[in-house]
Amino acid sequence: MLEPLAKPSAVASKFSVIDIADLSLRFETRDGPVQALSGVNLEIARGEFVSFIGPSGCGKTTLLRAIADLESPTNGVIRVNGMTPHEARLSRAYGYVFQAPALYPWRSVARNIALPLEIMGFGKAERDARVAKGLELVNLAGFGNKFPWQLSGGMQQRASIARALSFDPDLLLMDEPFGALDEIVRDMLNQQLLGLWEKTGKTVLFVTHSIPEAVFLSTRIVVMSPRPGRIHDIIESNFPRDRALEIRETREFIEIANRVRHGLREGHSYDE
Amino acid sequence: MKSALPVAIVVIALLAFWYVAAALMNAPLQRDAFANAGRDDYSTTDLVGASLNMERPKLPAPHQIVAELDRLILQTAPTSKRGLVYHAWITLQETLIGFFFGASLGIGLAVLVLSVRSLERSMMPWIVASQTVPIIALAPMIVVILNQFDITGIAPKAVIAAYLSFFPVTVGMVKGLRSPDPLQLDLMRTYSATPAQTFVKLRAPASAPFFFASMKIGAAAALVGAVVAEVTKSEDGGLGARLLAGSYYGQTVQIWAALFTAAALSAALVGLIGLASRLVLRRMAFTS
C-alpha cells in the first residue's frame, strides 16, 4: 500500500456515525451462493463524505443497502448512530437516494418531496415550509407544481435529493445518483452536492463508478474489489471545502486518482 | 375529425356487405314464398327487393332493424312493456347493481390476495374455475335457488351480473396493486412506512390504469350476465326476455333490435368508463 499523499483529514467530530465490524453477506441464488461482502471493517465519523468505488459486483450497493436495513448481513455487526440498522431505519436516521429518481408520476414535484413528511406525520404548515426549503436547496424553486415527466433527468434526481433531505436526516446514503446523467449535468450536480454538503454538514455515503467524481467529492475514498466483495484500500483526501471543478487538473488530484485506479487494478477490477 | 373518414368508410363497407349477405340468405325463403303465392313472373330486382323486406327474414336488412328500433323506442311510450326503453331500463338496473357489487368484490379480493400471500395459490384456482363453468348452465340454477329464498325480479339477475364481472376486476387489480417497481417499494421501507401507508400512497394510485381497464371489461361482462340471466328467466322482462320472445315467435327483426339495444348499452357503459379514465389518468399524469 502506498503512503498517504494528503495530510490526514481533520474530521469534524470523533463521534463514529457508522461502525462496521467484520461484515459478511451471502446471497443464495439459483446458481449457488454469492459472497457479496466478506470481512468488511469500516468506521465513518460525522461530517465525512465517503465514496465507495469499484466495479459491478464488488458489493458497494449491497454495503449501502445493508447499512440502510434493506439487506440483512449473514455475519458481522453494523451500528448506525449506535443503533442496529433496523432501529436506525425505524428512527428515520437517514435519507436514501437511488440510481433512478423513483419519483411518483401522479404527484407534483412538491408533493413528491413532501412524501416522507406525510408518512412521518408532519403537519401541513411544516410540510410546506420544508418543501419550499428543499426546492431552494437544490435550485428547483418554482418547479414545485410541475410533474416529474415535465422535468429533465438531472432535475428529477435533484428533486429526489431534496426529498431525501426533507425530513432532515443526519446521514445521506446515495447509490450512484448521477450515473444515468450526462457528464455536463453530472459536473453541475457534483458542485451542487458539494455545496449542499458544505452548507448542511451532513454525513454522506456515496457509491459511484466514476473515479474523478469520487476524488472530487470525498474526504475518504473506499476502493472495493469483487469476488468476494471486500475493501481493498481506503484513501484520504483533503481538498479545501470550497473547491471548484478546476482542481481536477491539479497534480494532487491526479495523484489521488491514480492511486484509486491502482487500487482498482490491484483488486482485479479491470480483469475479465 | 381525421378519424371520421376511415370510420365512415368501414361502416359503409360493412353495410354494403350486410345488404348483400341479407339478400343472399333470404332469397331461397323468398323464392319459396313466391312459389306458394303462385307467382313466377318476378324479376331479380323484385326478388332482391322482396328479400330485403321480408316479415320473418333469416337475416334482417339494416333498414329493417332501424325501422324496428324506431318503432319500439321512439314511437312507443317509455313505460310500455311493448317498447325497448322499458326493457333496456330493467337490464341497465341489473347491470349497474351487479357491476357495483362485482367490482367491489373484485377489489376486496385483490386486496386480500395482496395481503395474505398464501391466498393466491389456494384461492385463485377456485376463482378461475368458477368462471369456466358455462354461465348459461349456471344462471338458471342460481335464479331458482334465489327464488327459493324469495329473491325474485331484478336481484337474481344482478347476482349473475356480479358473478361475471368480479373476476376481471380481481385479476386487473392484483396486477395493478403489484405494479410499483422494487425501487419505489424500497423507498417506502427507508421511510419505515406501514403497509397501510404504502397501500394508500403507493399501491392504490399506481393501480389506477389497471383499475379503469378492468372496470371496462367488468362492465361489459356484467351486461352479458344480466342478459343471459334474463334469457333463462324471462318473466321479469329485460332485453334478454325480448331476445327470447323474438326467437319463440320467429320475429328475427325483434331479436336483432333487442341485440342492437344491448350492444348500444354496453358501448355506452364502456365509453363512459373510458371518458372517466381519460380525465382521471390525465390529472394523475399517467402519460401512457
How are the SSEs placed, and which strands pair?
The complex is a heterodimer of chains A (272) and B (288).
Chain A: E1 16-29, E2 32-45, E3 49-53, H1 60-67, E4 75-80, H2 85-90, E5 94-97, H3 109-113, H4 115-119, H5 124-137, H6 153-165, E6 171-175, H7 183-200, E7 203-208, H8 211-217, E8 220-225, E9 230-236, H9 251-266
Parallel strand pairs in A: 3-7, 3-8, 5-6, 6-7
Antiparallel strand pairs in A: 1-2, 1-4, 8-9
Helix pairs in contact in A: 5-6, 8-9
Chain B: H1 4-36, H2 44-51, H3 62-74, H4 84-115, H5 117-132, H6 135-148, H7 154-177, H8 182-190, H9 195-206, H10 208-232, H11 239-248, H12 252-283
Helix pairs in contact in B: 1-2, 3-12, 4-5, 4-7, 4-10, 4-11, 4-12, 6-7, 6-10, 7-10, 10-11, 10-12, 11-12
Condensed summary:
The complex is a heterodimer of chains A (272) and B (288). Chain A has 272 residues and is an alpha/beta fold.
Characterization of the model:
The complex is a heterodimer of chains A (272) and B (288). The model of chain A is unreliable at 1-13 (pLDDT under 50). Chain A starts with 15 loop residues before the first strand and ends in a 6-residue tail after the last helix. Chain A has two domains: 16-93 and 170-266, 3-Layer(aba) Sandwich (Rossmann fold); 104-168, no CATH class. Chain A is an alpha/beta fold. In chain A, helix 5 packs across helix 6. In chain A, the strands form two sheets. A six-stranded mixed sheet of chain A has the order 5-6-7-3-8-9, with helices on both faces. Chain A is 34% helix and 25% strand. Chain A has helices spanning 60-67, 85-90, 109-113, 115-119, 124-137, 153-165, 183-200, 211-217, 251-266; strands spanning 16-29, 32-45, 49-53, 75-80, 94-97, 171-175, 203-208, 220-225, 230-236. With 288 residues, chain B is an all-alpha fold. Chain B has two domains: 4-59; 84-283, Orthogonal Bundle (MetI-like fold). Chain B has twelve helices and no strands. The radius of gyration of chain B is 24 Å and the shape is elongated. Chain B starts with a helix and ends in a 5-residue tail after the last helix. The chains are: A alpha/beta (272), B mainly alpha (288). The A-B interface holds A 68-70, 89-90, 92, 94-96, 98-100, 102, 104-106, 115-116, 118-120, 147-149 and B 181, 183-184, 186-193, 197, 201-202, 205-206, 208, 284-287.
